[in-house]
Design a protein that fits this description.
With about 350 residues, the chain is of the alpha+beta class. It has eleven helices and 16 strands. The protein has one domain: Kinesin (3-Layer(aba) Sandwich). Helix content is about 30%, strand content about 25%. About 5% of the residues have low confidence.
Length: about 350
Amino acid sequence: IRVRPLTCTETRRGDQRVVHSLGDGTVYVSAARHDATFGFSAVFDTGASQETVFEGSGMKQLVELAINGFSCTVFAFGQTGSGKTYTLMGPLTQGETQPAAPGLLGLMQRSFACLLEQSRSHSSDLVLSASYLEIYNEQVRDLLSPGPPCALPLRWSKTRGFYVENQLSVDFESLEAIANLLQQGAEPRRRRTSAHALNRHSSRSHALLTIHVCSRAVSTHLAPPSTYPSKQGTLCFVDLAGSERVKETGSSGELSVEANNINRSLLALGHCISLLAKPRGKRTHIPYRDSKLTRLLARSLGGSGVTLMIACISPSSHCLSETLSTLHYASQARRVTTRP
C-alpha cells in the first residue's frame, strides 16, 4: 500500500487525514462509522521516498526472477489521482528538456537500471527487448509502432495463452535507449491522458510495458549457440487507469465514455481477483474473457506468474469511500496464490 500526501486542494478545503500507518504493514482508517484496520505485506506512508518503495516492495527480487526465466508483473491500482503513475514512472513533467531528479525516478526506471546492472554482472548472455501497449476504450493499441496508434487483435493459443498479434518489440542495451522508448510511448499524442476535476494528468487508458529477458548460458565449449540452455522471462509494468466517479470528476461526453470503459474493465479485474482469492477447491470458472485487461493479465493473476500489486490511496476524508474500496480490493488480491 502506498499513501500519498494530502494535496494543496485537499488541505485548503480542510479535509481531515483519515488513513494512518501503524507500522508492521498495518493501515488504520479512522472516520465516523468507518473504523477499520487492514494488514498488508508493506505500507509506505506519505513521507516514503521512491527509493524506499523500490527497496521495500520486493521489486529487486522481481527483476532477478525475470532474469531467471519467470513471468513477473507489477501493477499499480487505485482511484484517479492517487499516485499510480508517479509511483511507476515518476513526475509527468520530465522529458528531454527537463529530466526528473534522480530521487524522484519511479519503479520502472529503477528496475531498468537494476536489470542492466544485473545483465552486466551475469554469467549469461542477456538479450533485452520491450513492447508497450495501451488498452483504450477496449481497444489494444501499440504505443511503439510508427504512425498513429492503431487497434491490434487479441488472440488466444494453447501454448501462449492470450497474446497481441503484430505488436512491435524493440531491442535495447542501455538505460538511455529504454528511457527513450518509455518517453516515446508516454507522449500525449500517443498515450491518452486528460484533465478533470480530480487529476490534471488523468490516464484514460491502461498501459502495459513488457520487458522480455532472454538469457542464454555462455558455454566454454565449441557447441553451436542454439544448443545452449536458454530462459525467457518477462517483467511487465501495468499502469492502470484510475477508478473514478463521474459525479466527482465532472466528466462529460467523451470523458464520460472513457470513464465507463475504465470502470467496467476494473470491475472485471476485481471480479477475477475475488474468485481467485477463494480456496482452490471452491473456485468456479474465472471470467478472464470479460475484458481485454483481464485477458492480458490472466497469466499474471492466476497462472504461472509472480505478481506485485501496489495499491495507491489518498489519506483524505473526501476520498474515504474510494480508499476503503481500494483497501478491500487489495486485501482480496493478497489472498490470491499463483504457481510460478
